[in-house]
Amino acid sequence: MACSLCIGTVLPILRRMRRLAVLLLLVLPHGASRGLEREAFEVYHQRRRAVSEAHPDGLILLLGYERQEAQAVRSPFRQENNFYYLTGWNEPGAALLLIPAQGDGSVYQELLFLPPDDPSHEKWHGPRAAPDDADIRSQTGFESVLPISKLATRLSRAAKKRSHVYTLFPHRAGEGKQPEPDRREKLQTHAGELPIADIRAQLEAMRAVKSEGEIRLIRKAVDASIAAHIEAWQEIEAGLYEYQILGPMLAAMINGGCLRPAYAPIIGSGPNSTALHYTAGRRRLEPGEVVVMDVGGEYAHYAADLTRTVPVDGVFTERQREIYDLVLYVQRKVIAAVKPGETLRGLTHKAKRYFDEAGRDAAGEAMGASFLHGVGHSVGLGVHDPIDFSQPLKAGMVITIEPGLYLPEEDLGVRIEDMVLVTENGAQLLSKGLPKEADEIEKLMRGR
Question: Which residue among 182, 208, 234 closes a domain?
C-alpha cells in the first residue's frame, strides 16, 4: 500500500521533471542568444541627439550601473533602464557623455566610456568589451569609445561655457520600484563647479511612446510569457506547491528567449489569490480553489506582464465562474475604452463604475469596493514603466488592463491582465494568444 502510494506520487513528478529537462535542453542552443537582441544603433543615436538638442546649454552625463548596483549577484547583469534606452549597452561600469553643439562652431559629440581590460576580472566573470578592442565601434555603435579613466578630463574640458551638467537623480520611491543608487555626490565631483540638474523627466516622456523596435521586442516577451502560462495550465493539480507551478513557466520563458522574469512571479492559490503582490509561493494547492498567476518574462530588456486565474481542478465552480465572468466583462469594457486622449486614471474610474453597476457582494457592498488597484500601467523597459496616471494616452504607448476582484471572506481572488498597444483608433491586444474565456481555459486544462 505504501509503495503504490509512493509510486502514484512520484510518477507525476518524474513526468514533470522530464518535460522540464527537455525544455531546459532546448534553451541552450538558441534561447539565450535571441534574448540579447537590440534595436538598430541609429535608433539609440537619434535618442541621444534628441536629448542633446533639448539641452544645448549643458552637458549630459549618465553613469551606467556597476555590477553591484545592478543587484546582479543572483542573476545576469542588467543595465539601468535609462542608460540602456540611450545606448543599448548592457555591461557594467560604463558612462555616457553627450556634448551638444554650440554657436561657436563646436560640433556635437557622443562619448562612451568603458572599463579597461582586467585579466583578474575575466578569471571570475569572463571576457568583457574594452575601449581598445579592435571591433569596439561595431560592438557599441559609438564612433568614440574611451577608457573610463579619461572621463574626468574630457568632462572638465567640455564644461567650459556650459551652464549645467544634466544627469539622472534617483527616482521617487514607490510601489514596484527598486531602490536606485544616489550618485549625485559622485557626479558633482565629476562636474566640478557646474550645477547638476535632473534629466529624468525628459527621458521618461520619451520612453512612454514606444518605437517600432521596442514594440517588436515587447511582442517577443509577450509571446514567451503566453507559452509559459499555457505550459503551467498543463501542470496544475491539487497537491503541488505554488512554487512548483513556476518551474515549467520559467523553462518556457527562457526557451522563448527571455533571460529572466520581468518581476517577482506571483502565483497565489486559495486565500493567497486575494493578496495583490503575493510572491512567497509556499502554499500547497487544494481541490476546488483558483490560482492567480501573474507572471511575465523579460526579452532583450523589455518586459511582459500577464495574469490569468485558473481553477486547480480544471473546472470553475459556479461561484468562481460568476466572479471570473464579471472581471472579464469589465476588462473587455475597459479595453474598448482605450484610445488616445484617455488616461489610466480615467480608465480606472470606468472599471470601478462597471463593477458597481454589476451589483453588490454578499455583505451588500458595491462590487467596486473589492477592486483594490489601478486598472493598468505602462510597460516597457520596466514592468512599471514611468507614466503619470493623469497623462493622456498616446498612440505607441503599451499598457496593461488588469481589473480584479478580491474576496478574502471567500478565499477567492480573480485578476485578468492583458497588454495592449494604444493605436490611433483604439487599442490592439498584444496578448490575444493567451485564452481568457472560462470555457477556453477549462478546455485546455482538460487536455492535460
Answer: 208
